[in-house]
Amino acid sequence: VRIFTGYRIQHNLSRGPAKGGIRYHPDIDIDEVRALAMWMTWKCALIGIPYGGAKGGVAVDPRLLSRNELERVTRRYASEIMPIIGPEKDIPAPDVGTDAQTMAWMMDEYGKLHGHTPACVTGKPISLEGSYGREAATGRGLVYLYREAAPKLNLGPTDTRVVVQGFGNVGSWAARIMQDLGCTVVGVADVNGAVHSEEGIDAEALHRHIGEGGALEEFEGVDEVSTEEFFGIECEVFIPAALGGMIHRGNADELRCRMLIEGANSPTTPSADDVLEDNGIMVIPDVMANAGGVIVSYFEWVQNLQHFRWEEREVNDRLGTIMRRAFRSVYKRAEDDDVSLRLAAYELGIERVAEAARARGYISA
Ligand code: NAD
Fold it and tell me: How far apart are CA 298 and CA 83, in angstroms?
């Protein structure tokens, strides 16, 4: 018998039911879950979807459990948080260490008490009313923002070289879609190493190579580089899509890009932010940049409430509309107030939460 500790934090419900992922990681603690829940509040408000922020987690290393054990942990966790979740209360989704299968077990557990209720979680498999386009959504969202931001720097896809740190869900989709657009991927890193090619790395072929169990540095036509060299690769766009805190005071000055689009959550430390600003690098902040996942989660919930499935093209088009609107409002605010895009994004998100709280009478006018 082993006892695991789990959490579910609802940070703010002023704008609607809570929304946020569930993370399985051995080091997770309540403060981290609290911080992640708060980010979800600002993110949902900024992009204008009708949710508050939440996050959950279980302190467990999923790689050390069998599938059967993982199912039991998930079902128990789902039944413990059952009183506070539901389609109109709090809608969990996958995060680091969890996936569509985890959500399928959670939905099934919820259904034992409430009957079939697909809208109680998002990020489900397609066979259980998951949404088309969900898997690629975060990477695709980054690319929509690149398309809005690039003209501000007089950049076009054919003169954009891209470096991607992290080649998992977010990084590999972003790289593949940037490539489809006409950009050239010149650097990729993952947990095992980093590679560079001035002529370009075929992101689609690399994705297949890694999917077949190949190592990044064994991919044909690339040069293996050190972490230090990786950060110094000349490019127009750098996409951190690995873990938090990877761009810090110690390496921020090495970056040779014009635009940084934050796929990961908090990849840039505050002191690195100052360095990037001094170096004139446009930083598109995580709170807006990686919102594609929660936007398509929202679409999944809407589809589930109607038991009606949208075509993938409709999902992608609507995702683009929301991302473009977010970018334009953040860019305008940053210009009007002469602040960074990050500060402008927080200003807008927090103001919208305050506006809703005031309208409900939670805080005085
Ligand atoms: P993932 O596990 O699919 O991929 C992570 C990638 O990062 C892997 O390629 C891994 O090898 C690489 N990596 C790990 N440590 C590294 C290191 N030290 N140096 C270089 N690469 C390293 O995860 P993901 O779903 O792609 O998420 C990536 C980031 O994006 C996370 O911070 C996550 O919180 C954030 N995010 C993801 C989504 C989503 O929809 N998946 C949405 C919003 C934010």
Answer: 21
Cα distances (angstroms) measured from residue 255 to each of 71, 222, 233, 264, 287: 42, 20, 7, 17, 21
Q: Cα(257) to centroid of ligand 1, in Å?
A: 20
Q: What is the atom index within ligand 1 of the atom nearest the CA of 265? A: 32
Residue 365 has pLDDT above 80, yes or no: no
Q: What is the pLDDT of residues 128-144, one digit of tens each?
A: 999 999 999 999 999 99
Query: CA-to-CA distance for 28 and 97, rounded, in angstroms?
Result: 11
Residue nearest to atom 33 of ligand 1 (CA): 264
Assess whether the C-beta atom of 264 lies below 6 angstroms from ligand 1.
yes
Q: Is 129 in the pocket of ligand 1 (CB under 6 A)?
A: no
What is the pLDDT, as a whole number, of residue 253? 97
Using alpha carbons, select from 1, 51, 26, 15 the residue that is nearest to residue 352.
15
Q: Does the C-beta of 96 come closer than 6 Å to ligand 1?
A: yes
In the chain, the percentage of residues whose pLDDT exceeds 70 is 100
pTM of the model: 0.95
Instruction: Output the residue whose Cα is nearest ligand 1's atom 19.
Output: 191
Q: Any bridge partners for residue 162, and if so which?
A: 185, 237
Q: How far apart are the first and last CA of the chain?
A: 53
Atom 25 of ligand 1 has which residue's CA nearest to it?
A: 169
Q: Is the CB of 165 under 6 A from ligand 1?
A: yes
Q: Is 270 exposed, middle or buried (0-12, 13-18, 19+ CB in 10 A)?
A: exposed
The residue assigned the tokens 């690629």 is 136
